[in-house]
From TrEMBL:
<dbReference type="GO" id="GO:0015226">
    <property type="term" value="F:carnitine transmembrane transporter activity"/>
</dbReference>
<dbReference type="GO" id="GO:0005275">
    <property type="term" value="F:amine transmembrane transporter activity"/>
</dbReference>
<comment type="similarity">
    <text>Belongs to the binding-protein-dependent transport system permease family.</text>
</comment>
<dbReference type="InterPro" id="IPR000515">
    <property type="entry name" value="MetI-like"/>
</dbReference>
<feature type="transmembrane region" description="Helical">
    <location>
        <begin position="139"/>
        <end position="166"/>
    </location>
</feature>
<dbReference type="GO" id="GO:0015871">
    <property type="term" value="P:choline transport"/>
</dbReference>
<feature type="domain" description="ABC transmembrane type-1">
    <location>
        <begin position="92"/>
        <end position="271"/>
    </location>
</feature>
<keyword id="KW-1133">Transmembrane helix</keyword>
<dbReference type="GO" id="GO:0043190">
    <property type="term" value="C:ATP-binding cassette (ABC) transporter complex"/>
</dbReference>
<feature type="transmembrane region" description="Helical">
    <location>
        <begin position="70"/>
        <end position="89"/>
    </location>
</feature>
<keyword id="KW-0813">Transport</keyword>
<protein>
    <submittedName>
        <fullName>ABC transporter permease</fullName>
    </submittedName>
</protein>
<keyword id="KW-0472">Membrane</keyword>
<feature type="transmembrane region" description="Helical">
    <location>
        <begin position="45"/>
        <end position="64"/>
    </location>
</feature>
<keyword id="KW-1003">Cell membrane</keyword>
<keyword id="KW-0812">Transmembrane</keyword>
<dbReference type="InterPro" id="IPR035906">
    <property type="entry name" value="MetI-like_sf"/>
</dbReference>
């Protein structure tokens, strides 16, 4: 047995810090929550307003633009049609809206942090252990602080998802920029390019396959949080899986689970196709 006089607890300190955040920045957090909620509700309303057949056409067109393959288009359209055929179209739109907002926030956070990490070794040294913690921490743990700060609903689900899903994008953005050929950068520097011209004209375009791979992983991890996020009111397909577990309704849970898998496959195929160099398509 470990000696009690050598033990200590971090729980009280963490709880006091969260309480201080709520007391000091409660109003600001409420404004942030309202802004994110408005974005989710607006996007969800837009997706629901699109007729199912028009959405299938848009999805097929996106798959064609990404891959230039008709087989890819047929697979994407057929899989999404199947989700509608089993009566989960509305839930699919809810989940897609949540995932798109979570991915958008992950990109807004992840790519700038990846760029900063690639250009600053000291910042990278501090950032990498934090990313390790974010990726290895059990996903349920993220729900506790966001619930304390924002309560039940879609917003805490989104923020917990961003914390869980952003690290791959940060890592692969950093890796992609660092792997840009030094001779190319020396040539660009010799032509008098400034820092921003190097970044947006050379480094990011050459690192795009790596960045798209990070985006692919981020979207997959965001989808993996769908069921967990439903426990705090996120709704969507994860809610049906959760109900299936609670009521032992295997069929309902399996249908919703297959719909989540289908959405993951569709997004994976499209983002992977965009991540490949265009001459490989």
């Amino acid at each position: 047995m470990f000696p009690k006089n050598l033990t200590f607890s971090m729980a009280d300190g963490i709880n006091n810090f969260v309480d201080w955040l709520v007391m000091r920045y409660g109003d600001s957090l409420r404004h942030v929550s309202d802004s994110i909620l408005s974005l989710i509700v607006g996007l969800e309303g837009l997706l629901r307003a699109i007729p199912w057949w028009a959405f299938l056409i848009l999805a097929g067109a996106l798959a064609w633009h990404a891959s230039k393959r008709w087989t890819q288009v047929v697979v994407v359209v057929a899989l999404l049609y199947f989700v509608g055929a089993v009566g989960l179209w509305d839930k699919l739109m809810q989940t897609l809206a949540l995932m798109m907002v979570a991915t958008l926030l992950s990109v807004a956070v992840g790519i700038p942090l990846g760029i900063l990490s690639a250009g600053n070794d000291r910042f990278r040294t501090v950032l990498l252990p934090m990313l390790d913690i974010m990726q290895t921490m059990p996903s349920f743990v993220y729900l506790i602080p966001v619930l304390m700060l924002f309560g039940l609903g879609k917003v805490p689900a989104i923020l917990a998802t961003v914390i869980y899903a952003a690290p791959p994008l940060i890592r692969l953005t950093d890796l992609g920029i660092r792997q840009v050929d030094k001779e190319v950068m020396e040539a660009v520097t010799s032509f008098g390019a400034n820092r921003w011209q190097k970044l947006f004209g050379v480094q990011i375009p050459l690192a795009l396959p790596s960045i798209m791979a990070g985006l692919n992983q981020t979207t997959m991890m965001a989808l993996s949080m769908v069921v967990i996020a439903s426990m705090i009111g996120a709704r969507g397909l994860g809610e049906d899986v959760l109900i299936g577990i609670q009521t032992l309704d295997v069929g309902k849970g399996l249908e919703a689970g297959l719909a989540i898998v289908i959405l993951a496959v569709v997004i994976d195929r499209i983002t992977q196709a965009y991540g490949k160099p265009r001459h490989h398509l």
